[in-house]
UniProtKB/TrEMBL annotation:
It is found in: Cytoplasm. It comes from Vibrio ostreae. This is Ferric uptake regulation protein. Its cofactor is Zn(2+); Mn(2+); Fe(2+). Binds 1 zinc ion per subunit. Gene3D superfamilies: 3.30.1490.190, Winged helix-like DNA-binding domain superfamily/Winged helix DNA-binding domain. GO terms for biological process: negative regulation of DNA-templated transcription; regulation of secondary metabolite biosynthetic process. Fe cation binds at H135. The keyword Metal-binding applies.
Length: 149
């Protein structure tokens, strides 16, 4: 699989890792590139199969460790409902909560950041004395491309 990934994006995460003093190994970088190469969310086993093309010795723990690292650093998001992964549109430019629009026909995932939606959720929680630490907003449906077919 040939990946045409924007080198600026790879350079950006390399710089972020260097600034944080964390190690972006070749395998972590490769898993990130594989995730970025698709508009669809990728499962760990799909990533493993793709990774094996360049690293035949790769095993499931290799991919899971890379995914854990990339999520920890804020470079990717986990799509909870499908147990798969997508790249983060802001690549951890700032901590944020996202809404994911997931097409049930083609599998494409769009990440949205809507501060007014997040503020509304926070206000609703506050009215009940609840403090949100994390949330996942996933909306399933049909994308524009699939609905126009």
């Amino acid at each position: 699989m040939v990946i045409n990934l924007d080198t600026k994006l790879t350079q950006q995460i390399e710089e972020i890792c260097a600034a944080r003093g964390v190690r972006l190994t070749t395998q972590r970088k490769r898993v990130f590139e594989l995730i970025c190469a698709s508009k669809k969310a990728s499962s760990a086993y799909e990533l493993l199969e793709d990774l094996k093309q360049s690293e035949p010795q790769a095993k499931p723990p290799t991919v899971y460790r890379a995914l854990d690292f990339l999520m920890e650093q804020g470079f990717i998001h986990r799509v909870e409902s499908t147990n798969s992964f997508i790249s983060c549109c802001s690549c951890n430019a700032h901590k944020h909560f996202s809404q994911l629009l997931i097409c049930d026909q083609c599998g494409n995932v769009i990440e949205l950041q809507d501060d007014s939606l997040i503020a509304l959720l926070a206000d609703n929680a506050e009215k009940h004395g609840f403090k949100i630490d994390n949330h996942v907003i996933e909306s399933h449906g049909v994308c524009q491309s699939c609905s126009s077919k």
